[in-house]
Every structure is written in C-alpha cells, then in structure tokens.
Amino acid sequence: MALMITDECINCDVCEPECPNQAISMGEEYYQIDPGKCTECVGHFDEPQCVMLCPVACIPTNPSHVESRETLMQKYLRLTQATA
C-alpha cells in the first residue's frame, strides 16, 4: 500500500527530505504523499523512513491504494529506471 499523511500533520518538515522517491510534497494545508511515487521505501530501506521519523505518527497506509510488496518493488524498479 502507498502511505498517506493525515490532517494531524504538524508540518514539521522531517518527512519530505527523507523520502527516497520524492513522493512527499507540501499540500494546501499539510504534507501529502503521491501514491504513484510511494513505495513505502521498498527497494531503498527495510521500513518507511517517513513513518519512522514522524513525531506525531500521522502516516498510515492509504486504504485507497492497496499494493503488495511485489507491486511496490515493481514500482520502485520503474521509478529508478526513469531516473537513470
């Protein structure tokens, strides 16, 4: 599954620079995650970096974007090939 940031976000700026896929950006009121770029850090790290660093625990999985680990790995490979 891709991750999402809830309205509990305090805009602390910790997550955005840590995202290896540059999937996190500032939305109208708080940060948001682009599900097309989010791999939950599959291919980069063992755990999602944004979740590990978030001081208010406002980054759950996005139920609208259910993906298996295999699908996330395929997305990672597609994204990394596009930047190569």
Automatic annotation (TrEMBL):
Positions of the 4Fe-4S ferredoxin-type domain: 1-29
Entry keyword set: 4Fe-4S, Iron, Iron-sulfur, Metal-binding
A Pfam family hit: Fer4_7
InterPro entries hit by this protein: 4Fe4S_Fe-S-bd (IPR017896), 4Fe4S_Fe_S_CS (IPR017900), PSI_iron-sulfur_center (IPR050157), YfhL-like (IPR047927)
NCBIfam families: di_4Fe-4S_YfhL
Entry protein name: YfhL family 4Fe-4S dicluster ferredoxin
